[in-house]
Amino acid sequence: MSSIKNKTILITGGASGIGKLMGKLCLQEEAARLIIWDIDRKKTEETVAEFKSIGEVHTYHVDVSNVDEIIMAANDIKQKWGGVDILFNNAGVISGNKNFHQFTHRDIDFTMRINTNALMHVTLEFLPGMIEKKSGHIVNIASAAGLIPNPKLSVYCASKHAVIGWGESMRVELEQISKDLHVTTVTPSYISTGMFEGVRSPMVPIVRPQKAAKAIINGVKKNKIFVRMPWIVYAVPFIKGILPVRWMDFLTGKIFGFHRSMDSFKGRN
């Protein structure tokens, strides 16, 4: 079991959505301090005002697509508090509602920098300290889109596939070093935040942010390797492993309706 009490917590993209909700839960679990990285100054200030009565909160204005900004903020944290105990790689973006041939090179680079590369760069700054202490927890917010194909989400799917593969490889490495070094990969389906505004999911429930945040925190406390939601996502690897590809396409596209889920997608303004 991983305890959050008295731990230093860092959440990227922690000023909104499930990042903010997870931060509040960590403070309620008596974390020593919550550190929020976010690119939105206004939301960051609002979050600090809301959380200051709950516990110790520190914020940094960081664009996680910029490696120099990551290194600068990480160095400041290491100098002040010696690093972090639990890192939530939560910041992410979505480029969707168009087929791959309609994407631009900028779309591809922007999505991969934030959804994939940033997680590696942020982790690389704090993982050596965790290894030195032989204790720490990395939490990667991936997606069920990293498990199954989804039209009009090809680049997003690619970024999440990469996070799952990297996180699992890193987990095995760390388990060889210490039993107290953990990696949890989170693979939710659609969550009803502004990020997925307008998506349709006729057969699979859209997850409420509060429920998602609680499930992730409980999963971290239990050192779960995967946190998946809703329940059907737990069956995806098994079903995908036994069904022929065309049958899987029929199941996810025709039965569950994923192949049309992005048709009315709006996203955040």
Instruction: Count up the helices.
Output: 8
CATH homologous superfamily (4th level) name: NAD(P)-binding Rossmann-like Domain
In helices, the fraction of residues equals: 40-55%
SSE order in H/E notation? EHEHEHEHEHEHEHH
Q: Strand fraction band?
A: 5-15%
Task: List the strand order in the largest sheet.
Answer: 3-2-1-4-5-6-7
CATH architecture: 3-Layer(aba) Sandwich
Separation of the first and last Cα atoms: 39 Å
Count the strands?
7
Tell me about the largest β-sheet: 7 strands, parallel
Whole-number count of domains:
1
Find the structural class using helix and strand composition.
alpha/beta
Task: List low-confidence stretches.
Answer: none
Class, according to the CATH hierarchy? Alpha Beta
Broad shape = globular
Provide the gyration radius in Å: 18 Å
The CATH topology is given as: Rossmann fold
